[in-house]
Amino acid sequence: MKTLIAPSLLASDFNNLSKEIEMINESEADWIHFDVMDGRFVPNISFGIPVCASINKIAKKPIDVHLMIVEPEKYVKDFKDAGASSISVHIEASPHLHRTIGLIKELGCKAGVAINPHTTVEQLENVLADIDFVNVMTVNPGFGGQKFIKQALAKIKKLRAMANELNPNLGIEVDGGVDLTNIKEIKDAGANIFVAGSAVFKAENPKETISKMKLI
Fold first, then answer.
1. pLDDT band for position 140 (50/70/90)?
2. What pTM does this model have?
3. Domains of the chain with CATH codes
4. Of 18, 101, 148, 186, which has the fewest beta carbons less than 10 angstroms from its beta carbon?
5. 159: helix, coil or strand?
6. pLDDT at residue 168 in the model
7. Catalytic annotation, pick one of 38, 64, 175, 179
8. 175 belongs to the catalytic site
9. Is 38 marked active-site?
């Protein structure tokens, strides 16, 4: 499957957000990853709908919205209207997950389901055929700059095997601690969408780092 790189704005320079978006526009990145945190589902607060809408005015790459919030179904239309091309919701925060997936797809967005490090991939079995991608969290969500949890590699392998049976075109997105030292191992496990925050925005040459990730 095609390798997609999605720089995470959570690690960007908020004082120069328009310049950071322009860098992504000019790079080989495929998506712009936009983390939404509510201070309830995760212990932090980040961007909201107005910021997404503002970014959408200058973004030339699809905006990948990751809702780390309770009651995500209440906000998917607002984020679609603000420019989201893909939206992922957490299985742990979605008691009516199938309904929420259906809503995302009805709005014309790619639908994703995110799973925390402690969540097993088997819990996705009944929705795997209905979604476009799974966001495998390889850190505990809520903060950027964390270290990749290596146990996630086994989950990615298991998920790819499940997808081969139930949804061969499923994208597997990996979010947390991805960098040039581990991206090959993660890709070999079966992932094809890589969220990279600090590895990109803290790099001496972010565009070059993105290009190197694409080549691996």
1. confident
2. 0.96
3. 4-215 (3.20.20.70)
4. 18
5. helix
6. 97
7. 175
8. yes
9. no
